[in-house]
């Protein structure tokens, strides 16, 4: 074995990996089935949203909907609390969304925190929708 490969083998910490005797195959397959089901539901939901609202979805993903004129009009019409909620949402979104692409590399607690942040953004957006409805 070349010296570089020997060094890589020495650096690998395999102590955290369970041995074959410690793996419960039925639990492992149940975990995999649950994970695939969750991913399947997620992909179907995103695909349906994209299919049902193609142009808006693309605009949302590219953040093209946040035009200067739209934001100016919103700020002029909305009360200060609604503007503050709007800003809170759109300041947090890029940070939270940037974690989505690397979600599987996050530690379990960080995944949970990300999920909680996404749900909070969703609640805030729903509150914003209500406030905008009241403005009209």
Radius of gyration: 22 Å
Mean pLDDT: 84
Structural class: mainly alpha
Number of strands: 0
Low-confidence stretches: 3-15
**Net shape:** elongated
Number of distinct helices = 6
The percent of residues in helical segments reads: over 70%
Q: Give the biggest sheet.
A: none
Give the ordered list of helices and strands: HHHHHH
How far is it from the N-terminal to the C-terminal residue, by CA?
73 Å
Question: In percent, how much strand structure appears in the residues?
Answer: under 5%
Structure description:
The protein has helices at 3-11, 25-52, 54-62, 68-77, 80-100, 108-135. It is an all-alpha fold and 136 residues long. Helix 2 (25-52) packs across helix 3.
Strand-helix topology:
Elements: H1 3-11, H2 25-52, H3 54-62, H4 68-77, H5 80-100, H6 108-135
Key features of this structure:
disordered N terminus; mainly alpha; single chain; 136 residues
Short overview:
Helix content is 77%, strand content 0%.
